[in-house]
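To close the chapter, one final illustration. This time we ask the reader to focus less on the individual chains and more on the assembly as a whole: which components sit near each other, and how the overall shape emerges from the parts.
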Amino acid sequence: MSPILETQKLCKSFGALAVAQNIDFRLHAGDRRALIGPNGAGKTSFVNMLMGALAPSSGRIFLGGEDVTRVRQAQRVKRGLGRTFQINALFNRLPVLDNVALGIAERRDAARRMWRPASSHKEVIQEAAELLSTLGLAEDALVPVKDLPYGKQRLVEIGIALGLQPKVLLLDEPAAGVPSYESEKILSSLERLPPDIAILIIEHDMDLVFRFARRITVLVQGEVLVEGTPEEVRRDRRVHEVYLGEAHHA
Amino acid sequence: MILYVIAVGLSVTMGLMGFINLAHGVFAMAGGFILSYAMARYGAPFPLALALAFALVALASVVLERLLYSRLYAAGELAQVLFTIGLIFASIALARLVYGTNTAPVFLPGYLTGQVHVLGRDFPTYRVFLILFSSLMIAVLWFSVERTRWGAMVRAAVDHRGMAQSVGINTRRLFTLTFALGSGLAGLGGALGADILPVHWGYPLEHLVYFLIVVAVGGLGSLRGPFVAALLIGIADTACKYWIPEFGAFLVYAATIALLLWRPQGLFGLRA
Amino acid sequence: MSGYTVDPRIRWTEYLPWVLALAAFFLLPEYLALGARILIFVLFALSLDLILGYGGIITLGHSAFFGLGAYTAGILSAKLGVNDNFVQLAAAAGAAALLGALTGAVILRTKALTLLMLTLAITAILLEVANKMSSITGGADGLSGVVVNPILGSFRFDLFGKTAFLYCLAVLALSWFLVRRIIYSPYGAMLTGIRDNTARMHAIGAPVYLRLVLIYTLSAMLAGIAGALLTQVNQFVGLNVLGFEVSGELLVMLILGGVGRLYGAFVGPVVYLVAQDYLAKQFPEYWYFGIGVILILVVMFAPSGILGLIDRIKTKRRPA
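The assembled structure is written out below.
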């Protein structure tokens, strides 16, 4: 089976600082992959390059077998690539339903319609409402996002990405900053994601990583150190060395 | 070159502090009026009048900054634009009330008038003086911003105010000082240029586009940028007016648009 | 007022502006000239609100479209003898839309300060052109001799400004209807998304640039129509339609009323122009000073304008 997302010798430097060095990466449909590594390893830069928000210095990126290295972010999204942000990037003043509906409308090509009122586009609203239900946000549909507790905002963040029905979903620290009593909801939402989409999750929370991921890629200083099953990674000496002295919190 | 002196102050406030201050021309105008008034009314010598222009405008700007500007640092671009437009309207009305429609008369000292012989050609002494002065200023400014702690602190405070505060930088005082410097420079520029760009009540609006062009083309936050931009604009403007008088101003505008399309962050800009 | 959760039906309060306008027509016949001017500026403010309040584009160059529309109508009549009002309107709309599309395509690649500066530069260019090509535009003296045939063949522009007022009201009503539809549509919701978080809009696959160019073009078109109306009503067009003062004053009017709220564009010009009509005659030197001070005060203490203040009072009154 050919990979749905692939990078070949991906490199990125900011002047003298190399944040990505010859990264070869392959993700298949249905994968549950975690990307871990110490701070500054280049994980978010990698995701930014995958999305098209950051241009690589060299190397190529393939989505669904097509070379998308030069393709703009919005186009990659149309071809099935979705992401969530490490720091919430929500439409803060808009209600929860609209946050999710905007993406759905884009996907359904309803967003550019100027004549009929938005509220009459029942298909969009229906789909948005269903999505909110699966995330447990149904009662908050009319609440402006800025008035929600952080954990729920994180869920909206995931919801926006899901509304795009991506084939590949990149989750940048979905549980970051969420108090432990709320992260369970996020975790169960992640577990209920459609099985055929490929998911790459960046996380520091090792419990979440080991519970969720079927394969783990370890990134250190812009290079892939190790890639394998959770067991293999857990036992790998190099990983221990890298994390030695680093208090990785549960 | 006048454009540079005035615009560099704008590049300082906008680039270093991230505040869109369209009313910058008001400070320049004030500097010009101060120079004229000091020399005409009190017979002050030229250098003293220049220093007064710088100092008094800087002082006034501190008052304005403390009372008004500082409340808007986090308010977003629209608020800043609107506020400074309001300031422009109020100032030009005030200038008109106080000075009427006359331009402020400027009497250059004898040693700066006439011509000077350089490299086999005659140049107006005053222009040569301006070029030398601007170059000196850029050197001093570049040194202060790049090499001193002050420059580093301002840049840190702009990048992340909370962080800068928590490492003990007094951001309030820093911003006030920087703003005072930028505005003082504007006043100095207005005074220096009063002979070439006449100072009158409509001054801030008349030259607004040019100040902004110099800053945008030069690149926000840069000190060399506005220098190069002002130089280029000055040359282009003179050349165009000489060869194609009907279209003098156009080519500057057209060139600006073309350049910004090619490099939206300006020649030496920091961010795209 | 945009979004998927709002009710798009016309509320009873939305009939008020039209009721008031018609009341003014019957009850204040001496003020119809001012009334027409207000209506024109409401249309102009509506056009600005589309891109400023909904698109989040800060521009000081909207008078470029207004002026282009004004001069197009004027030149058509005074120089080319085309006196049909609908043709003049259409031509102005077309010219302004074309300029809007061209300049929008260019400037919307930039942001904030650069964009602002470019809008100023474009208006400055137009002003220079109008000034220099005085054989066509009348230069600094302006263009007089603008003739408008009776509208629909029967309604002449009378001395009392009655036809002018109703004519402007009709054009405004049509435009308002159009703008309201856009705001409540998915496109309008998308614009608020751009205004709220542009980066996220990119990340959900929205072609932000193209959408903004489109709304900029529409906005320019409406501004051009407003300019044409001014020329038709005054039967004259001068250089001031392209000046910074017009752009600046329009911004003040819109902020005064409230940005991004559809009806801010109604409230603002009414308040501003009525005040100007009364106060500027009494104290002309102090008018700009007062405007500057008020603008500063509004920005610092009432950034959502008059309508925003009303909202705040309403929420305070409502029981918690």
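Chain C touches chain B through 41 residues (CB under 8 Å). Chain C has one domain: 12-243. With these observations in hand, you are ready for the problems at the end of the chapter.
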